[in-house]
Structure formats: C-alpha cells, structure tokens
Here is the input.
Amino acid sequence: QVHLVESGGGLVQPGGSLRLSCAASGSIFSTDAMGWYRQAPGKQRELVASISRGTPNYVDSVKGRFTISRDNAKNTAYLQMNSLKPEDTAVYYCNVGRRDYWTGSYYPGDYWGQGTQVTVSS
Here is the structure.
C-alpha cells in the first residue's frame, strides 16, 4: 500500500505563489509516475500535472505557471504554483501511478491522501 500526505496549501491572493508537498511512503519506486490532481466544488477531479522519469506534463491551464518535481529520494513530490488565479481554488491531491509510454496517459493508483486546500482570493 501507499500512504500519501499532502501539505502546503493555504489562502493566497491572486498572483501569489504556493508550494505543495506530497510525502509518499510504502510501495513506491522511482520508476513510478506521480501526479497532482485538484477538485473544486461541483467539479470532477482533474489531473493538473504528472511526472514520469523526469518528464513533466501539464494541463494547458497551468502551463508556464506550475512546476512539478520530485526529490532525490523519489519519495516526495512537489507542485510549485506561481501566478495563482481564483480558478486554481480547489483541494489538491497527489497520487502515485503510472504514465503510459506509448500514449502519454496517466493512470492513478488506488491510494489518495486527504488533500490540501488551496484558496486564491483577494
């Protein structure tokens, strides 16, 4: 099993920055992909960013503003969020999964943390 703990969320003004952290433990390997999702009230959970073997992918709405990374031990993922907008407001979750080499699609694993709330408001 995988245990995931997200942290780093909070209240920030538009244009501000936050860095989210995801501490993972258990059955996690450096070859596994990791992803960040977010879910706003009344909306489906959406994939924001993923990273696999050092290669990041981003949803169009966050390109140029967000950066996903992993630490040297490959057990912690980060999401650096700059130039935040009100539409970025959501609960953010991380996930350990896989990304298909041939299609580029990210497939989440079965384990999720409690998420961390990000609120962008003036």
Observations:
- The two ends are 40 Å apart (CA to CA).
